[in-house]
Amino acid sequence: MTPPPRLNTLSHLSHAAVHYDLGGQIAVDRCFTFGCVEKRDNSSDIKLEVAKRLYNELVEKLGRCRAGKLATTTPTLAPTGPVPCPACRDCQAYFEHGHRSPGIYKLTVSLNNPPTFDAWCDFFGNHGWTVIQRRDQQKASFNRSWQEYQEGFGRVDGEHWLGNEKIHLLTQTNQKLNIQLVSSNGRVREGTWQWFIVGSESENYKLGIGSNGYNGTLRDEFSFYHHGLNFTTYDRDNDRLTHFERNCAISSKGGWWYDTCSNVNLNKGNGLGMFWYVTSERLLSSVMRITR
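Request: output the structure for the sequence above.
Response:
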């Protein structure tokens, strides 16, 4: 096929349409390339030079395309999957960035405190949930010191306590709490509280949990009996039990928000069994998780 002629005059340009058909794939006319330069344009000297240059560049590109040397371009599509979230403060932030696969994620709660730590994220009910406690095999010891409960212990992909300081930082914004329990007979119970907060260390990681808006299949013993209580471990006695000078964490073999001692205790020592008042079945597993 003979290539189109190189143009030297405005007359050629204004009358000639370029039809350089490469196997039916390319057909270009003068209006597409030059914006329909017409003969009635009187500034012929400038227009001629510009139009000639554009036309001749087109001819060159068409020739390269004919030889198979012109790369094709594909439009850039907007990302449709999860996007990176280098400073996500909780699992809800990951949800908002498109993440939906449960697993271990890095959280950045505060720039001044442990800048980054691992947490397990669950995704359901249009939320990303940060797991703060999990027990399933009840093999890991929860009879830990104040410092261990403060920093956290265990494996975030297994049995663990995320850490009181991290929970305190996470709950500085309004949080919901979800608890799910599985009994030995396979029965699953759960409950969701609309307000959950843990105070600072100077407040003994005091528990705040509201009953308003609670819903679930668990009887709400948690907010009724444990709201406003301080955290206690075997080496830091903050419970309300005054007689016999007994420490609830020692007798229960686990750190918790104790009254005298507890109606709910999901950190109770191995062999004693997790406890939720009026739940007669033996509890096999528990998960505590929070979201905004």
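The CA atoms of residues 243 and 260 lie 10 Å apart.
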